[in-house]
Design goal:
mainly alpha
Amino acid sequence: MSQVIYGMLVISGRITMLGLSRWTEKGGSYRTIQRLYHSILPWKAIQWLFFRKQFLKAEDEHLIVGDEVVFGKAGKETFGLDRYFS
């Protein structure tokens, strides 16, 4: 998983399994990435564990926000963004 995450961080352009396998080092072959994508992982538990270990402090306030956009936007502006931030 660490190889795939590394590949996702350094890859440019469109992210595909073939592209990830080209950007990863040893241990990140195309077949390994296929196995990772076809396995069922408890993502909520993994994300919570990562957040708790890396960022959670009792004296701080935290805001958890998610964005599930997977397609590039069409055009030059994101509709409604100026109204959101005003």
